[in-house]
Amino acid sequence: MTEAVTALPAFPFRVRTPGEALDEYAKLRAEAAVTRVRLPGGHEGWLVLRHAEVRTVLTDLRFSKEAMTRPDAPRLIPVHRGSRSLVNLDPPDHTRLRKLASREFTQRRVDTLRPRIEEITAGLVDAMTGSAQTTADAVTALALPLPITVICELLGVEPAEQAQFRQWGDKVLTVGGPGADADAAREAAGALMGYLTGLLERKRARPGEDLLTRLLQAQEDGDSLDDGELRTLAMTILIAGYHTTVSAVSHLLVHLLEDPARYQSIVDDPGLIGTAVEEALRYSQVAGGFGSMRIALEDVELGGVTIRAGEPVIPLINSANRDESAFAAADELRLDRTDNPHLAFGAGIHFCLGAALARLELRVLLETLVARRIPLALGVPVDELSWHLATAFPRPAELPIRW
């Protein structure tokens, strides 16, 4: 008798909310650290679900990001052929580019941005609460404009061009699966690259006090970035600085406001803001891991299975951040959690370049809301929210809040 062949589960999973995805991850994680799935293009690959194994994939150079740019490589997000993005390179090229770019994202450099971020945040909160209205959509009022304004000013994008810049950025990170539009993502990426080419020419002719100008001028041991590297790095900074933070702000507000006691505890004790931000990053479903997919360069034993050379591997950061073996009461949001080795910003050589900037924006937003003691609450039950899920960084389509 021939044995029945069990069909592999299709990934990404068909879910309506990020919470449903977490439920699926928990079921799989309870069974194994690593499990096999079928990807949108028909490739088979491996989901890595537990904290220790996810961290291994993120830090072990036998799992390659650069191999993802090959023409025949599987896709979860639209990686362009031959892409030279910092996030898609392996050493030694990654080492060189990271060294040239990292000085602009040190904690000291990011701290100099605090006054302007405080000013932008205060303006957004004023605009949201300054009229007779007592309700708003927190996505359009806070989550979208805060990071795009910060990143555009950082790059030196003119205010009049920011709306178009954002529209292109919104389309770039389409994930394969229901609702995805890979063609629109590629078209937007091409338009954005064209815009960045012109912006670099303007900065070269008229240097400013912005990040792009400093990157144009950056040198390390006589080395500098060429125009292609600068365009791609600017695109990377846009995506990393915009999409991730929009999602992080949205999730932060959802999770703090779904239980009124959570938000009130921070209003009563602002000293919790630091640990609350870290815990929200762990607890939220921001860093799904779709953009962290890698290709095994050789056979690797991981989590009790053999991953063969050439096979795709997806380290599911959201699953790792809810792993009971790494976090006590992993499914509880504990705003005072101090032992918190979350992987929201990744690990290893691809640890998020803009982590300090994202943390600062989240902290400043909470500080601003708490200092004004705005009595925020969700405008609808959390299970009535609809979500944008066909993106590498899912977020609510709208987030009604009231005060």
TrEMBL record:
UniProt entry keywords in alphabetical sequence: Heme, Iron, Metal-binding, Monooxygenase, Oxidoreductase
PROSITE patterns: CYTOCHROME_P450 (PS00086)
InterPro entries: Cyt_P450 (IPR001128), Cyt_P450_B (IPR002397), Cyt_P450_CS (IPR017972), Cyt_P450_sf (IPR036396)
Highest taxon listed in the record's lineage: Bacteria
A single MF term (Gene Ontology): oxidoreductase activity, acting on paired donors, with incorporation or reduction of molecular oxygen
SUPFAM superfamilies: Cytochrome P450
Pathway terms, separated by semicolons: Antibiotic biosynthesis; vancomycin biosynthesis
Gene3D superfamilies given in the database record: Cytochrome P450 (1.10.630.10)
Keyword Oxidoreductase applies: yes
Keyword Manganese among UniProt keywords: no
Function, in words: Involved in the coupling of aromatic side chains of the heptapeptide of vancomycin.
Record family assignment: Belongs to the cytochrome P450 family.
Protein name listed in UniProt: Cytochrome P450
